Amino acid sequence: MSANSFGQILKITTFGESHGPALGVVIDGCPSGVEFSHDLLTANLERRKPGQSSVTTARQEADQAEVLSGVFENKTLGTPICIIVKNQDADSKAYEAIKSQPRIGHADDTWKLKFGHVDHRGGGRSSGRETLCRVIAGSVAQMICEKLRPEIKVRGYAKQIANFILTPEESENVWHTNIDNFKTRFPSQRENEVVALLEKAKAEGESFGGVIEVKINNITAGLGQPVFHKFKADLGFAMMSLGAVSAFEIGEGFASSQKQGTEFHSHLSGAQYGGIRGGITTGETIDFRVGFKPTSSIKDLAKKGRHDPCIVPRAVPVVEAMTWILIADHLLWTRLDRI
Amino acid sequence: MSANSFGQILKITTFGESHGPALGVVIDGCPSGVEFSHDLLTANLERRKPGQSSVTTARQEADQAEVLSGVFENKTLGTPICIIVKNQDADSKAYEAIKSQPRIGHADDTWKLKFGHVDHRGGGRSSGRETLCRVIAGSVAQMICEKLRPEIKVRGYAKQIANFILTPEESENVWHTNIDNFKTRFPSQRENEVVALLEKAKAEGESFGGVIEVKINNITAGLGQPVFHKFKADLGFAMMSLGAVSAFEIGEGFASSQKQGTEFHSHLSGAQYGGIRGGITTGETIDFRVGFKPTSSIKDLAKKGRHDPCIVPRAVPVVEAMTWILIADHLLWTRLDRI
Amino acid sequence: MSANSFGQILKITTFGESHGPALGVVIDGCPSGVEFSHDLLTANLERRKPGQSSVTTARQEADQAEVLSGVFENKTLGTPICIIVKNQDADSKAYEAIKSQPRIGHADDTWKLKFGHVDHRGGGRSSGRETLCRVIAGSVAQMICEKLRPEIKVRGYAKQIANFILTPEESENVWHTNIDNFKTRFPSQRENEVVALLEKAKAEGESFGGVIEVKINNITAGLGQPVFHKFKADLGFAMMSLGAVSAFEIGEGFASSQKQGTEFHSHLSGAQYGGIRGGITTGETIDFRVGFKPTSSIKDLAKKGRHDPCIVPRAVPVVEAMTWILIADHLLWTRLDRI
Amino acid sequence: MSANSFGQILKITTFGESHGPALGVVIDGCPSGVEFSHDLLTANLERRKPGQSSVTTARQEADQAEVLSGVFENKTLGTPICIIVKNQDADSKAYEAIKSQPRIGHADDTWKLKFGHVDHRGGGRSSGRETLCRVIAGSVAQMICEKLRPEIKVRGYAKQIANFILTPEESENVWHTNIDNFKTRFPSQRENEVVALLEKAKAEGESFGGVIEVKINNITAGLGQPVFHKFKADLGFAMMSLGAVSAFEIGEGFASSQKQGTEFHSHLSGAQYGGIRGGITTGETIDFRVGFKPTSSIKDLAKKGRHDPCIVPRAVPVVEAMTWILIADHLLWTRLDRI
Lengths: 339, 339, 339, 339
Fold this sequence. Notes:
Four copies of one chain form a homotetramer. By secondary structure, chain A is an alpha+beta fold. Chain A has helices spanning 38-48, 108-115, 131-148, 168-172, 191-204, 231-240, 261-264, 299-303, 312-333; strands at residues 5-6, 11-15, 22-28, 32-35, 65-67, 71-72, 75-77, 81-86, 153-161, 164-165, 210-217, 245-250, 276-277, 280-281, 286-292. A five-stranded antiparallel sheet of chain A has the order 1-2-3-8-5, with helices on one face. A five-stranded antiparallel sheet of chain A has the order 10-9-11-15-12. A three-stranded antiparallel sheet of chain A has the order 4-7-6. The longest helix of chain A is centred in the last third of the chain and has 22 residues, at 312-333. Chain A is globular. Chains in contact: A-B, A-C, A-D, B-C, B-D, C-D.
């Protein structure tokens, strides 16, 4: 089965446990001739890396990517690309207790119940560390898009952390801001307050949730399939497959459920559709939001310092990566639309 | 490609245009020996059928299902089950105008742009009529579940229509109510007001959105795959693949994004997780919500009477069908979990 | 699962039992804008039809194809194409005996053992009648190829029936011969002897095997994938999936196993490779052979006249159909080779 | 796409170029709880390894397998198993010439034509070195089978090398012989002659083809799917996907094409069917044969000593590996047959 695969044309298969020897991904279906940018890959991994700031987990990982196949003389070969990252700072001793006592909010018990035999160390494969592989695959997808459609832009940022919510002006401003200048990726003048909140939470074993918003500009029109693989459905699937995510909406989302048709459908096009009609991109800006629960590791577990008080800041590059994978997947898929 | 397939073990492939000769579905992966209930199938199709009440479209379709294969002596054979429904009341003349002028809020133009050649009549394959095939497949899935796990219950209902929202008590009461006794599937004493609103909307070419909530009781623990095919991810994909849907959330959903961890994660289990942890069902009640936009056909288009002023009432059996397909799919999948 | 699907980009899913209401196929992944030729489809079905001559089964079937979806104004829509054929001359009474006594050489007992519940009538889904669906899908594939690469030619014919074997001259002559002018599709002056042999066999409940050879001319170079989906592997899979087939070889096949390298690899290109090197088409003529066992229905079973004394004549259009499907599949697939 | 994947339930995805950093495989769909035998894996890799005897290539590779994921405390976790082998003796300089001049009988030119950009060193991904990954995956499959059905035995051996052919007695004797005691895996008293022939060929730049025969004993009945994934079809696909293979037959194979039905179908069961009827295993011994062309590297290319004068001896464990993968795949698949 393909329990660990994602995508139709550009198909990724991820593997690896949090405290095993390595994690990685095989990317099948990447065309030949794509220039491979190690810099882009490294930069994206840096953005997701643990230990990057005072508001993230203290786990130290170099997260150095090794390209094992599919790339030659800095170009893709059309063969499967395998890229791995070896684990280093895997402090498994801290997890001995889990063997007998499942952690609140985690998958320890459901996993055990399902598979019987589990790697209890650091959550094994249900650790957030698996998102590393998504960032790798997303980077390759981004390289494909940059070759095919360099005008496409993807921008993710924290729309909300705890009770801090971006103002409409701050939200609109994100294309003119370097999101990564903000530790929490909450692009607001109030960010110092958010930082303080998260630092305090980290010290005290508290945690918070939040919402990531993503905008896609200059997207090619005609992406998405009519029935099951609507572009919005693939986006929803991609986002809901992330560990801490509990909600997804596109365009006006839940708010549209309270609108009247004559008000909502005022123009043929419009931001209310989130850039998608009939499951197919219109070419207008796509925007969607992803809701994250508070981090599950709290109190004593969290105080050991190896957990994020809020996962949103580090999840931004992951959400962007999944978005790039889908864009590349559907861009390639359109080659099959017409005879 | 499998643009028109859904499911991993129980794989359905749908086909058919709104005004073509027929619509249908092939269900591959259904085990042999499942008792086939024509009554259940008919009942589910009746619940989705157009023209069923004063608050739905006036299109008249018998929606009579013909089983072409895979069933013999009222039992499944383990071979692919093909079931079709022929179109009858396909009034295509009303759609001549679309050829030159795309309808607001519809997929006419994105579709044309993608495929070049389109069946403009009644939205072709992007018509809501395609959900018929989902209800057929969902019925077969329900038969599988009734054999494997008769205790599982799925209950969908309108949580919100326009600005009417169920009270918490009404929501809790749904297991003791026959939802189908309510024309709008909004199980409330205020339903007469909702009916009046929708009848008026139908007459005036207005439309409304809404929210469907689904609860799953007595679900088997251990369903779902650790990474991409988390149970919540497959649910999100299923729901976002429906035409008018713009939002999905599970458990506390977006509301959880504003909670503190020490408050949210107060117990090992709990309703806040929506019955899923680490992507895997815990055995507790699953609950999720699906947000629908107002129907796209408004004003003159809608006044011709062949459109629903709010799609929520007829979408309830569709949402339930997709849920059954996923439950059956994952129930079968667990057979592969352990050696 | 996809037990009943074939192909990667052009994906077909077949359904139907020999004595059920209908058989059919859903073709997913056919691009929009392909001209649909009902004449080609009908002609191919005629070539496979039972009862077409004195050397085939007496079962009478109109085999009239109904296109249910995916085609509008004689062009494909890019949506799934479903085409069915209803069964008519299903004389099921003759099969009552099988319920208790499995037929020699058939799948009656293996099937029963696997699925428990079976449709014993006429072999159910393991009847050769399922190849009807392959001919339908192959016809659509042929339409795709005619649009993309009209120069490609596929020619199948009986290379051997019983102990009659084409001379090298007769084999070479096949492009200048109308194979269908030969009842047995054995294009030789000795065909009258083969006809006499098969007519006698039909009367006496005897049966024979044979070999079909296929040549592909003007094939596009570059078709096939490097490792698992080598063009020769997909061909081997396609042919070995036919009921009565027990052998497959390409180019010099088994004969090459006895050759010396310095003799065999005398030139960069050459007929010895069968038009494929490294799994990828070179553009040279492809040739392969498919070995068929004698028909399983013999003696009393066969004398009832509803079985073919040798399946090779009717299998020629089926083998060609599978070849077209693969060519179309790989032609479309090459669109994904390079960025 | 899944150009580099094989299998339906037990799905393997291979990667790696002959002279790249590493080759490997991801195995998805392996149930949890399978005891992982490093010894079995190592033993199988030793059997395939280059440089193992005087009749194989002189390339020296340790072929040491590193398990990166999916195994913990010597048991499988139910998560994807990634196993890699790093390349060491990659003497790429010898391949500089290929850049401008494609080698006879190789894929250098077809590959270039397809992908444009290629890794010319050692054949890149179309090198026989990719079969390493098949042996790894086959070993895991064998571990699964040993847990589920320890009675199943797979035995491969050279049936023919050049013009040396096993006698029927030698063929029947293979279950009582340690095939690996024969350098060429041709289990005959005449093996010394075969060795001499191949040593001479190696010195002189000559090469030979051959035939591998495989027998499967005590196979579970009921494996295989009715239409496309017949057990024989999957076997044919698996074998034809190997680089040097040009022919495949099962049971009596091509010889059956010359038989009369009343002679061939003399008994309900029987060796003539090769252990498969209707595509489904009967439980009787399965036997099939795989035809190999002479090695493509001849004359000067071969004299450099890094090529096998006949690939059959080293291909035996590869053919066995593919067989194990299919058995495990179909064994797991039968869990889905019945409700």
